[in-house]
Amino acid sequence: MQDPDNPEERPRRSRHILLKIDSWIDSTLWNAGFRSAEIWEDVTIFFRRFRVRGWKRFVFELSGEALTLGAAGSVLMLLLAQPAFEATKEDWRNRGDFAVTFTDRYGNVIGHRGVIHQNSVPIDELPDSLIKAVLATEDRRFFDHFGIDFIGLFRAMSENARAGEVVQGGSTLTQQLAKNLFLSNERSIDRKITEAFLALWLEANLSKKEILSTYLDRAYMGGGTFGAAAASQFYFGKNITDVNLAESAMLAGLFKAPAKYAPHVNLPAARARANEVLTNIVQSGLMTEGQVIAARRSPATIVDRNEQESPDFFLDWAFEEVQRLAARFHQHSLIVRTTIDMGIQKAAEDAVETSLREYGESFNAKQGAMVMLENGGAVRAMVGGRDYGESQFNRATRALRQPGSSFKVYTYAVAMESGMTPQTTIVDAPIYWGNWSPHNYANRYAGRVTLETAIAQSINTIPVRLAKDKLGIQPIRAMAKAMGIESPVRDDVTIPIGTSEVTVLDQATAYAVFPAGGYQSRRHGIAQILDYGGDVLYDFDRDEPPAKRVLSEKADFYMNQMLTRIPYFGTARKAALDNGILTGGKTGTTQAYRDAWFVGFTGNYTCAVWFGNDDYTSTNNMTGGSLPAMTFKRAMDYAHQGIVMRPIPGVENPAPPAKDTAKTAAAKPEDSIPQLIRPRMLSVESTRILKDLGEKLKSAPPLEAQKVASAG
């Protein structure tokens, strides 16, 4: 008999237990595998009952592949639809809840934004002729499709192929509404995909009548008007419910190209377009030729008005500012006094258009933008593109473009803050930062140069060497943000030479720090917001905090001393203003000549100018010192006529070298743009006296009735 307490027996017992466990695992796994095989065989036998052969098998195989591809396609469509889902998260119905009347800095009405100021008319009360004209021209199958019309798209493609050019669009009315409500005019595949999903979303959430009504209320109709009701009042001086067939046809013709066919701009073109609309009505079967013949013979006439063009790009931006500022007010019908100066605005528009008309083709540049600030932060002019009617995309506030060398000022500003001076010398030589190596223009290197010379000649290696060896990237990013760059600033080694995209408004805001003595520019476009009772709800001077210092006085002085050399000895000689007005600034040209910039300032104004192409194609070797500098000079020369000049801080000798200016002007007389002449205006002293008199009259007590009677 074995003794359980015997130490020699314990290992045998342990081994016996382990063998039992191993045996149980083996048998369990084998049984599980055997049972699984039996189950699989049963399943296979069961499904053999459904096996098909011959043509039926082909159908089932095709269906299976379709389901697989359909599932994958559904996932892909869901991913593509994400931008559309994001766009509809906002309260898009109330985007136009505000009704705002805008005035310029002097109180003159310059435009409206928000809900239609002529009350929106229910779709059932609109003239039948207007509905037929719009549907026949914009979307004949509107009540038959679900937001995307494949039949209409195929027809448009056929007509365009037959004509050899784009003569007919394929977008439905719902797609056009989606673009107006949520998207920009950018031409890209991504935008068209998002537009299609938004159209489907609108069709699912709105009735056909609601879609048509919203479209007629929100579309831009030229002349600064939005919606058919406002356009009817503007062009014909009558309510939308009273328009006749000829007027309906003219209104319906505006949706395609409001700037081109606006009757107050080109009445013959508007009437020709209206005649095309009448033809569309007949071809669609909505009316007969006999019903439209009277409208052909007696085309619409418009109200004769002295047209003052509305600064629409500025108003769009100002309206966004109003919505931000007035969100806390319960009043939504507002009068807003802006900072815009319509004289300077017109000069800025003329400068951009003249430059593009005279030099755009040779430089292969089709678009431009400009922002001008009066030193103190007031936006005096904003040009967001060449033609608002053709494209409402504001290139001054929304287009993110690489600034090139115009971004270098933030690196040099950090260098001045760190104790360097304009006379500090740095070696201009090839430099490597990881796998990246920037090159100078024409691959030329000058050896040891001063910072003053480096920024004037726009040497690329110097700001990169400063960032790598002495400053770092983070202080440069922080400086750009502090000075007013609101666009996201990249966090990589290439930003010292301007690879981080910014807007024109960003650059104007940041550069305005230099003539402000190193303080924030306090850029703003809204001076006051009032309700219709005259109560001031918001006042910039009263409600906004004072400017903070973002650049030390010494650093600001050094920067101004360097930047005021560039228009006379550097890359921006075509930017120097006339009449001895000291000018500072910096040029910028990006890789492959895609963007050309000049951002400059005087003691009175700061102005940023950009030229390029919406599709990012290269220009024809256009640099910041060419067309942008010339356009800057034209607009700024106008703005400085008849005003008292302010000095640029830190520059002891405000007079530019006359001989250099004259030599530059005489060097290439063809590279100049005719000067604009500013109308005569009150002097600063006269304006001050009149303002003081107005304030005294406001504060004076009212006269008593008895005294007035006795005086009479």
From TrEMBL:
Q: Which GO terms describe its molecular function?
A: penicillin binding; peptidoglycan glycosyltransferase activity; serine-type D-Ala-D-Ala carboxypeptidase activity
Listed transmembrane segments: 58-81
Q: In which pathway does it act?
A: Cell wall biogenesis; peptidoglycan biosynthesis
What are the alphabetically sorted keywords of the record? Carboxypeptidase, Cell shape, Cell wall biogenesis/degradation, Glycosyltransferase, Hydrolase, Membrane, Multifunctional enzyme, Peptidoglycan synthesis, Protease, Transferase, Transmembrane, Transmembrane helix
The domain of life for this entry's organism is Bacteria
- What name goes with this protein? Penicillin-binding protein 1A
Q: Does the keyword S-adenosyl-L-methionine apply?
A: no
Q: Which GO terms describe its biological process?
A: cell wall organization; peptidoglycan biosynthetic process; proteolysis; regulation of cell shape
Q: Which reaction does it catalyse?
A: [GlcNAc-(1->4)-Mur2Ac(oyl-L-Ala-gamma-D-Glu-L-Lys-D-Ala-D-Ala)](n)-di-trans,octa-cis-undecaprenyl diphosphate + beta-D-GlcNAc-(1->4)-Mur2Ac(oyl-L-Ala-gamma-D-Glu-L-Lys-D-Ala-D-Ala)-di-trans,octa-cis-undecaprenyl diphosphate = [GlcNAc-(1->4)-Mur2Ac(oyl-L-Ala-gamma-D-Glu-L-Lys-D-Ala-D-Ala)](n+1)-di-trans,octa-cis-undecaprenyl diphosphate + di-trans,octa-cis-undecaprenyl diphosphate + H(+); Preferential cleavage: (Ac)2-L-Lys-D-Ala-|-D-Ala. Also transpeptidation of peptidyl-alanyl moieties that are N-acyl substituents of D-alanine
Q: Which family does it belong to?
A: In the C-terminal section; belongs to the transpeptidase family.
**Residue limits of the Penicillin-binding protein transpeptidase domain?**
369-636
Q: Where is this region: Disordered?
A: 652-678
Listed under GO cellular component are: outer membrane-bounded periplasmic space
